[in-house]
Design a protein that fits this description.
The chain is an alpha+beta fold. It contains 1 helix and 5 strands. The strands form 2 sheets. It has a 3-stranded antiparallel sheet, with no helix packed on it. It has a two-stranded antiparallel sheet with strand order 2-3. The chain starts with a strand and ends with a helix.
Length: 70
């Protein structure tokens, strides 16, 4: 599962979102840590979910919790 550190280039309806770990407001059009999770549905469609973080620390905490199953 790739980790990305860049500007969000997806089609966002809003410019700001909360960090998934601590809920700090992030400007999606500024460089910030992101995590893209790609999965395939039962019918074969590829879905990409992008998680946004305010810092590398929040990304690391979220990833450790995810990997440990919490």
């Amino acid at each position: 599962m790739p980790k990305v550190y860049s500007e969000y280039d997806g089609g966002a309806d809003v410019q700001y979102a909360g960090c998934i770990e601590c809920e700090t407001v992030i400007d999606l059009f500024e460089t910030h840590p992101m995590f893209e999770d790609e999965s395939v549905s039962e019918v074969g469609d590829v879905a990409v979910r992008t998680y946004h973080f305010c810092s590398d620390d929040c990304l690391g905490r979220w990833k450790r919790q995810r990997d440990s199953g919490q």
